[in-house]
């Protein structure tokens, strides 16, 4: 719609209309085929010769549409733009009707009545609407998408939350410990207690929670991002015990296993630095560095 010379390529995937999820109308077709027909219809309404092609990609949704030429001369561009406006308005109101069926509207009847109303409007009004607003209430995405998966949070803030949550779990059950045999001596290593995400959140201050709520997934995402320290299972937070982790595959040659083990030493071991009992693994078995001298 931006210009007569515009061409397009589209690979339909998620089932969305102009103002929300696409509502099915034909039970005889698969949902995917029906949605493809809808996307093709948009191209036809916009005055394109719509071509369909199947891409050679490893996906079940690989049907694409290409619009390379128009079905009308440049002089009729304004007329087609009015047609597009009516189509968009009809789809918008259809979406509202689908949500408000309890009022008594039916999907088809309401859309048909809207098309009749749209057709009764004067061409001048349609042209003015088409020239000023393509779709009322439409808000495009920002050009730069904001990262909200806790990855952009300040490192000091993340470290503080991790330390607070870990201490909370360790102090919740100081008597809970596991035997750890190393070098013939039996030591104990405090695994701490498991708490629900809600219980953990109740012990964090309001400012911290406010900052986490602005991120997708909030506290749970932050804890999962810190895989070295925590394990989140079924809504409960645990201190990760690296002795229980599966050993690396033994199918690799010994030389490759030794080289890959050295390559893993790119981060310091959190337990070696912060845990009151230190790391549960000896230095040669831990995938993290026990001191800066081990960093690679």
TrEMBL record:
UniProt keyword terms in alphabetical order: Cytoplasm, Metal-binding, Methyltransferase, S-adenosyl-L-methionine, Transferase, tRNA processing, Zinc, Zinc-finger
Claim: Cytoplasm is one of the keywords in the record: yes
Keyword rRNA-binding: no
Zinc finger motifs (C3H1-type), residue ranges: 263-293
Coiled-coil annotated residue ranges, if any: none
Subcellular location: Cytoplasm
C3H1-type domain: residues covered: 263-293
GO cellular component, one term: cytoplasm
GO biological process: one example: tRNA methylation
InterPro entries from the UniProt entry: tRNA_uracil_MeTrfase, Znf_CCCH
GO molecular function: tRNA(Ser) (uridine(44)-2'-O-)-methyltransferase activity; zinc ion binding
Principal cellular location given in the protein's record: cytoplasm
Enzyme Commission number(s): 2.1.1.211
Enzyme class: transferase
PANTHER family hit by this protein: TRNA (URACIL-O(2)-)-METHYLTRANSFERASE-RELATED
Name of the protein in question: tRNA (uracil-O(2)-)-methyltransferase
Species annotation: Dryoscopus gambensis
């Amino acid at each position: 719609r931006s210009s007569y010379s515009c061409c397009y390529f589209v690979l339909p995937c998620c089932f969305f209309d102009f103002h929300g999820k696409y509502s099915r109308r034909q039970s005889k077709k698969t949902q995917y085929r029906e949605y493809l027909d809808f996307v093709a219809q948009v191209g036809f309404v916009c005055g394109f010769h719509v071509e369909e092609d199947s891409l050679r990609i490893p996906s079940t949704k690989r049907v694409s549409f290409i619009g390379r030429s128009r079905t009308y001369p440049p002089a009729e561009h304004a007329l087609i733009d009015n047609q597009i406006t009516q189509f968009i308005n009809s789809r918008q109101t259809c979406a509202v009707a689908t949500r408000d069926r309890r009022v008594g509207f039916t999907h088809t009847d309401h859309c048909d009545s809207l098309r009749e109303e749209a057709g009764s409007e004067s061409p001048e009004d349609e042209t003015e609407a088409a020239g000023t607003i393509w779709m009322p209430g439409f808000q495009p995405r920002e050009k730069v998408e904001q990262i909200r998966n806790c990855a952009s949070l300040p490192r000091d803030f993340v470290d503080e939350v991790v330390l607070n949550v870990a201490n909370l779990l360790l102090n919740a059950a100081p008597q809970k410990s596991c035997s750890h045999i190393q070098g013939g001596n039996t030591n104990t290593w405090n695994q701490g207690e498991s708490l629900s995400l809600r219980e953990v959140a109740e012990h964090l201050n309001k400012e911290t929670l406010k900052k986490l709520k602005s991120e997708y997934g909030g506290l749970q995402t932050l804890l999962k991002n810190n895989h070295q320290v925590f394990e989140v299972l079924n809504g409960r937070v645990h201190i990760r015990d690296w002795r229980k982790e599966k050993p690396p595959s033994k199918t690799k040659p010994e030389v490759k296993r030794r080289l890959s083990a050295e390559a893993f030493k790119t981060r310091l071991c959190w337990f070696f630095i912060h845990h009151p009992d230190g790391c549960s693994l000896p230095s040669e078995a831990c995938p993290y560095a026990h001191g800066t001298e081990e960093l690679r």
